[in-house]
Amino acid sequence: MSEINLNIVHPLPTCKEVMNHICDNLGEELDSPKCIEIKNHLENCDNCKHYFNSVEKTIEFYKKYNVELPKDAHDRLLDLLGLKE
Amino acid sequence: MDETKLIELAQNGDRKALTELVKLYEQTVFNFSYKICRNKDKAEHTMQETFLSMVKHLNQFSGHSKLSTWLYRVVSNHCLMLARSEKNIGFASFEDEEAVIDEKDIADWKFSPDQITENNELKNILDEAIKKLPADYRIVFLLRDVEGLSTEETAKIVELTIPAVKSRLHRARAFLRNELNKFLSEEMN
Q1: How many angstroms separate the CA of residue B34 from the nearest CA in chain A?
Q2: Which residues form the RNA polymerase sigma-70 region domain (chain B) (predicted)?
């Protein structure tokens, strides 16, 4: 009688695969076997951890870089639309 | 007064309600336009065109989607049109997929995102990096990551398939990260 092998081996991800995965799936909660391997790799690889942090920071930088609408641009807009108060 | 009521009143010719709607969204539209154009004059022009379009087409607005989503679409289309009319010199090429991930020079960054408000040098670095992205990649990155829209909403606004949005997002994230890394990496400074 043959036994079923339950220990299916997933090849370990390389750093490049992990970095690609970060750019693909950042912000999405995924729990496939592949994603679990990626998370395990991330916990133990400083290089990939730095990469992950830098991609997260890239997004944060652009989120926090905001500009205020100048008062004169607001006035010109209302004027253009014929809504001047 | 809630937005649906304001839209209904404005559709029936109430100018006060229309003014309120403009005031409700002018900052968001200007900021988003700036984030795409990285230029205050172009951002103001885009904002004006967007609200002119809103006033003109408000009666066609059915309320099935959010007004903000509709405005994002108008801004995006306007900016894409502007980009197509300008010569796209200086945009990065994304033909070589393998070239996007840069495994070299991976170190911590010396600036934190909180420093952006008072650091003009940092602002210039961010402006120059994102200006190198083709407009459709820039818009996908901004809608999905910066404005926080879902992949599905982003796909509808830019009229791309979900896999196409994901592919552009991947490349935009990797490209911007590499560009910023040249200036912000601890090891290199």
Answers
A1: 7
A2: 21-87
